[in-house]
Amino acid sequence: MATPPSQEERARRFAALHEGPCFLIPNPWDGGTARVLEALGFEALATTSGGFAFTLGRADGKVTLDEVVEHVKVLVEACDLPISVDLENGYSSSPEGAARAIEAVAAVGAVGGSIEDWDAEAGFYDLAHAAERIAAAARAARELPFPFMLTARAENHIRGNPDLDDTIARLRAYEEAGADVLYAPGLADVEQIAAVTAAVSRPVNVIARPSLSVREIADAGAQRISVGGSLAWASVEATGDIAARMLGVGDLSGLRGAKRVYEWLGAE
Question: Alpha-carbon distance 65 to 88, whole Å?
Fold first, then answer.
């Protein structure tokens, strides 16, 4: 059995991906899906807060930092790929909390992570405070003995405030504060993506939309494309549809054997 890559090796591979062509970074929700995505040929993975919360029977935003740390351990042990972590708001409104979240997941093998500028109680952090939180997270990342890719998220477009000018102003402030990657989930079309990528100099992550192709998103200037919880929801919906047919009309035709899954897992 091959020796797993070191955290520094994973970190350098992940950083290098941000200097090449636009790449896909899908979002597994457990160790098995991480293994499958690795077997399919993806070069890096990012966690999904919503997909992980679902595995615990909860809604997005209802997990703790300690639970996320345990989840990251599972993913790092399951595959050899670089892992970036959806850290929501850092599980704290303070700059110190955002820094602790970076340190906590880095300690168990993560080589990247994202911090949001919104939480359920406070709503949007004012720009100065949001930038201070990113600056604290960036300092924590820079103190690590390997390159940790910090992503700063502007949540406007998925939190009821699709103000593109404000989104760009926030991303510029986060770039100035030290973020390595910038991310505004929910951009609606290639025009909005292009406006964001033209306004900043750091790599931009864009969340996939079923209405757009990888080529279209890449041509608009994105450096990487994530899918959030979409793969998890597709899997859950497929399970629900098959189970509903079993219960409703006794149709068992949707059931599958494990052959392909075992192939992906490298099992005999």
Answer: 10
Rounded (5°) CA angle 170-174-179: 150
87-96 tens-digit pLDDT = 999 999 999 9
* Sequence-separated (6 or more) residues with CB below 8 Å from residue 34: 28, 45, 75, 78, 79, 81, 83
pLDDT digits (tens, 9 = 90+) for 165-183: 999 999 999 999 999 999 9
Q: How far apart are CA 173 and CA 197, in angstroms?
A: 14
Answer yes or no: are the C-beta atoms of 86 and 46 closer than 8 Å. yes
Taking only Cα atoms into account, the Rg of the chain, rounded to an integer number of angstroms, comes to: 19
| Residues 187 and 206: beta-carbon distance below 8 Å | yes
Contacts of 169 (CB under 8 A, 6+ apart): 127
Residue 183 CA: distances (Å) to CA of 3, 91, 152, 243: 34, 18, 6, 36
Taking the whole predicted model, whether its pTM rises above 0.85 is answered as yes
CA distance 83 to 125: 27
228 burial type by CB count under 10 A (0-12 exposed, 13-18 middle, 19+ buried)? buried
d(CA 204, CA 133): 19
- Identify which of 66, 32, 61, 35 has the alpha carbon closest to the alpha carbon of residue 48: 61
Rounded Cα distance, 217 and 207, in Å: 9
DSSP bridge pairs for 153: 116, 183
